[in-house]
Write a structure and sequence with these properties.
single chain; mainly alpha; Methane Monooxygenase Hydroxylase, Chain G, domain 1; two-stranded parallel ribbon; 60% helix
Length: 105
């Protein structure tokens, strides 16, 4: 992980902690979780884990990686970032046709 990424995590984490400290009173109990909480997430994981489309996961990952490297680097301009978002949207659509070979956890 690069120095910029680590710095971002530290700054964001500190800001998030300060916001929670302001908004949350000490000893406030957690809200009750809804019944079957988390099952929707597990269903989504299984959807991709057992996906049997025609686009390999590696192809989608590579396309995302190349798009991020070209259009979302540390030194970027608005035009490049907008272009990258459009390309990422097109790549995201391919998830409907994803094929997962490794179904292990």
């Amino acid at each position: 992980m690069g120095a910029n990424s680590l710095l971002d995590i530290i700054i964001f984490g500190r800001a998030a902690a300060k916001l929670v400290e302001k908004k949350l009173k000490k000893d406030t109990p957690h809200k009750e979780l809804p019944k079957r909480a988390g099952e929707k997430t597990l269903d989504m994981i299984d959807k991709y884990r057992f996906a049997d489309g025609d686009v390999p996961t590696a192809e989608i990952r590579m396309e995302m990686q190349k798009t991020m490297q070209k259009h979302a680097a540390v030194f970027r301009i608005e035009k490049s970032l907008v272009e990258g978002c459009e390309k990422m949207d097109k790549t995201w659509e391919k998830l409907q046709h994803i094929k997962t070979k490794d179904r292990g956890l």
